[in-house]
Amino acid sequence: MSRSRKKTPIIGMTTAASDKRFKVAEHSRERSAVRVALAKEVDTPSPKAFGDPWKAEKDGKQYVPHLPNLLRK
Questions:
Q1: What does the pLDDT read at residue 39?
Q2: How many folded domains does the chain comprise?
Q3: Residue 5 lies inside a defined structural domain of this protein
Q4: Rounded to two decimals, what is the model's pTM?
Q5: Residue 3: inside a domain
Q6: Which residue from 23, 39, 43, 58 lies 20 to 30 Å from 33 (Cα-Cα)?
Q7: What is the CA radius of gyration of the chain?
Q8: Residue-range definition of the domain harbouring residue 25
Q9: Residues 63, 69, 60: CA angle, nearest 5 degrees
C-alpha cells in the first residue's frame, strides 16, 4: 500500500477534519423538534429544515488539479 495514491485531487473547502459534530447536533435538533410536534399533535417539520450543509464547518469539496501532494494518502 506504500504506492497507493488518490485518483482525483478533490479536497474539502476548509481544514476541518470532519462534519460529525455538526451532523450529530443537527440530527439531535431535528429529533427534538419532531418529538415536540408529535406531543402538540401538529405537523412535523420538514427534514430539509435541519442540517443545512452550508452552515457546516466543512461546506463542500473542491477540485484542485495543481497540487500533487494532495494525492498522497
A1: 95
A2: 1
A3: no
A4: 0.63
A5: no
A6: 58
A7: 18
A8: 10-71
A9: 30
Contacts (Cβ under 8 Å, ≥6 apart) of 67: 9
H or E, element range at 27: helix 20-40
Q: Whole-angstrom Cα distance, residue 68 to residue 73? A: 11
Whether 1 has a pLDDT exceeding 60, the answer reads: no
In a domain, 1, yes or no: no
- Average of per-residue pLDDT across 14-22: 82
Q: Is residue 2 part of a domain?
A: no
Q: What CA–CA distance (Å, rounded) separates 72 from 11?
A: 12
CA distance 71 to 1: 14
Q: How far is the C-alpha of 42 from the C-alpha of 36, rounded, in Å?
A: 9
- Cell 429529533 locates to 31
- HSE at residue 47, side-chain half, CA atoms within 13 A, is 2
Here the cell at position 59 is 461546506
